[in-house]
Amino acid sequence: MIRAEELTFDYEQLDEEGNVESKKRAVDHVNLHIRPGKFIAILGHNGSGKSTLAKHINAILTPTEGTLWVDGMDTKEEDRLWSIRQDAGMVFQNPDNQIIGTIVEEDVGFGPENLGVPVDEIWRRVEESLSAVGMLKYRHHSPNKLSGGQKQRVAIAGVMAMHPRCIVLDEPTAMLDPNGRAGVIRTAQKLNREEGITIILITHYMEEVVEADHIFVMDDGKVVMQGAPREIFSRVEELKRLRLDVPQVTLLSFELQKRGIPLPDGILNNEELIDRLCQLKSKM
Amino acid sequence: MSIKIKDVNYTYAENTAYEIHALKDINLEIPDGQFIGLIGHTGSGKSTLVQHLNGLIRATGGRIYFNGRDIYGEHFSMKELRSRVGLVFQYPEHQLFEIDVLSDVCFGPKNLGLSREEAERKAKAALRMVGMGEENDHRSPFELSGGQKRRVAIAGVLAMEPDVLILDEPTAGLDPKGRDEILDQIQRLQKERGITVVLVSHSMEDVARYVDRIIVMNQGQVRFDGTPQEVFRCYKELEEIGLAAPQMTYLMHGLKEKGADVDADVTTIEEAADAIEHWLKS
After folding, report:
1. Among residues B230, B266, B228, which one has the least CA distance to residue B250?
2. A47·B146 Cβ contact <8 A
3. How far is A177 from chain B (nearest CA, A)?
4. What are the φ/ψ torsions at residue B250 (nearest 5 degrees)?
């Protein structure tokens, strides 16, 4: 679905005459391969290059060096731009910056309309997308009366209506309350499981990625760790050095290990730890 | 240096079709030096409430007393109130505008009528407090990382040496380390200088870890007011109003349901580790 080969990107700072004054390497020779239908998470501290990488996936940015393919299309080929953007949709952090319609259903219909989809088909997609994100009953509402989490779900529906094969979510929950956050993550998981859409989630909340298929960790523009959540979150101290964290329950298990309680590495959820602890207690 | 909020009501667009009753009969007392967490779902009235505390919004009913003086009274100086109650908005780094970090942080104290030297002295002290070293003083705010910008913006408010510091989601969008660094620094300030801190947050984990007292807002009213243990004990009610408890609370209640004799009131990792260790060894 997505393949990066030696992907490198430099931000250039120009002086008043338009000459390059300085360069900052944001993505540094990244190689990765994401297969269709996977739920992928990208972690990394502020400034590690994860958003810059994400912006390559729907060709907002194109590589300074190296190549990125979306569904076999090289993002540097300008005539493929619209097919790439239709294939890989993007949802950003601030819900207020990405909604343009005055009514929810109009907003969701905007994408397919721009793609030249026939009117009947647009309405069908609007209905289908809004029900997929659980917002169908708000179709006639004004977006500015919705909560942040609801707005994000409408933004996701807007991307869905373009029938993408992949959705990139760049910190979609950073501005949301706990309920809004849970709703957005549940929606992404549902689209992944039921519609087979590839999800690429960028987040600073470790709890949101424990069910991902694969995690990439970035630092200084490079992929420095990758693997299943259990492998990644077993490396508590390494993650802390990268300014990251592990889910609270993982950290608690780590703390208990240090106190001599025999627990395996990388416990990811409460149920798992509760079972382990009850087993230990019964053997004592 | 206490703040007393008495029967405060606030209605947006009163007597129009868009009328919204954003705050209903709020009564609160905020004593000196407390670290308070203010939580509530989007639209619950938290931001409206904190904007009353430094006079940015005027209550449509009720009174607010700052050190016993009515802030709506005739001789009360709103300017003074705003220098004593500092408010850091969401995404404050969007409001950085000066040519360098130091000038940006000087803006507040200069506006209070301080000399350039005095303003710079306070600005430098505030920058060091938030962990921004001297080497950054003359850099453009726009060259800084997200976490650094956020700290400069907070320093801009600290430079006015407020007695009360209100922060609206100060860690949104920051990486985990950045989150911890900012909250650790704020906690240190609160402990060392005895200032009052009101932290508006969507992170139950952060609130559990740092604050002495949690105030929960729902539909413009105060729904709970107590210690983290007291408030998170009502996690089912919190869920009904769009909130949650820290993961530790769920873990401990889960253990208890399996018959474990543990203290389910713990809310932080350290407390949970102690409680579990104690139970396993008993």
Report:
1. B266
2. yes
3. 5
4. -65, -40
Provide the residue type at A280 as one letter: L
- For residue range B19-75, list pLDDT tens digits in order: 888 999 999 999 999 999 999 988 889 989 999 999 999 999 999 999 999 999 989
In terms of DSSP bridges, do strands B3-12 and B61-66 run parallel, antiparallel, or are they unpaired? antiparallel
Task: Kindly write down the DSSP assignment for every residue of B42-70, as one continuous string.
Answer: TTSSHHHHHHHHTTSS--SEEEEEETTEE
B251 touches chain A (CB under 8 A): yes
Contact call for B176 and A243, based on CB within 8 A: yes
Whether B240 has its CB under 8 Å from any CB of chain A: the answer is no
Distance separating alpha carbons of residues A277 and B275, to the nearest angstrom: 12
Please state, in angstroms and rounded to a whole number, the distance separating the CA atoms of residues B156 and B158.
Answer: 6
Beta strands B164-168; A88-91: pairing state: unpaired
Report CA-CA distances (Å) from A123 to A88, A89, A137, B226, B282: 21, 19, 15, 50, 64
pLDDT band, very low/low/confident/very high, at B1 (cuts 50, 70, 90): low
Q: Do A270 and B243 touch (CB under 8 A)?
A: no
Whole-angstrom Cα distance, residue B203 to residue B191?
21
In tens, the pLDDT along A125-174 reads 999 899 888 899 999 999 888 888 889 899 999 998 988 999 999 998 88
Residue A16 has pLDDT above 80, yes or no: no
pLDDT at residue A21, as a whole number: 80
Shortest Cα–Cα distance, B40 to chain A (Å): 8
The 10s digit of each residue's pLDDT in B166-223 is 999 898 888 999 899 889 989 998 999 899 999 999 999 999 999 999 999 999 999 9
* pLDDT cut 70: percent of chain A above it: 100
Mean pLDDT of chain B: 91
| Cβ contact, residue pair A178, B273, below 8 Å | no
**Given an 8 Å threshold on Cβ–Cβ distance, is A249 in contact with B247?**
yes
**Structure tokens that stand for A83 in this block:** 């097919």
CB pairs under 8 A between A and B: 115
Residue A168's H or E segment, with its range, is strand A166-170
The answer to whether B66 and B39 are in contact (CB under 8 A) is no
ipTM: 0.85
Cβ-based contacts of A47 with chain B (< 8 Å): 145-146
Which residue has 């942040």 as its token pair? Answer: A148
Nearest by CB to residue A175, choosing from B172, B244, B273, is B172
